[in-house]
Amino acid sequence: PPGIPVVVWEKMQPMWSELQADLLKLSESATHTVATHAGHMVQLEEPDLVIEAILGVVRATQLPGARRLN
Q: How confident is the model at residue 6 (pLDDT cuts 50, 70, 90)?
C-alpha cells in the first residue's frame, strides 16, 4: 500500500490477509474485493470498482428471497 515501506508491509501482509478472511466469514453473502491500484481513496482511484461493488449489493437485494428491512 502507498506510504508503507515494503519491509513493513511484508511483515504485516500475512496478518492483514488473515484478518480480512475472518471478516469475510461474518456473513454468508460477504465478498472481498481488493483494489490493487488504489490507496485509501479507492472511490477516486478506482471508481469503476466501487460502482460495480455497489451495483452488486443492489442486485443482491433484488433477488428472490432477499431479506428486506421494514
A: very high
Is the model's pLDDT at 25 over the cut of 90? Answer: yes
| pTM summary value | 0.69
- CA-closest candidate to residue 32, choices 45, 48, 50, 20: 20
Report which residue type is found at 24.
L
Tell me phi and psi for residue 56, to 5 degrees. -60, -40
Q: Locate 64 and state its grid cell.
A: 428472490
Q: How many residues does the chain have?
A: 70
- Alpha carbon distance 29, 31 (integer Å): 7
How many Cα atoms sit within 13 Å of 65 on the Cβ side? 1
Give the helix/strand (H/E) hosting 43. helix 42-45
Instruction: Tell me what the mean pLDDT of segment 33-62 comes to.
Output: 91
Cα 66 to Cα 64: distance, rounded to the nearest angstrom: 6
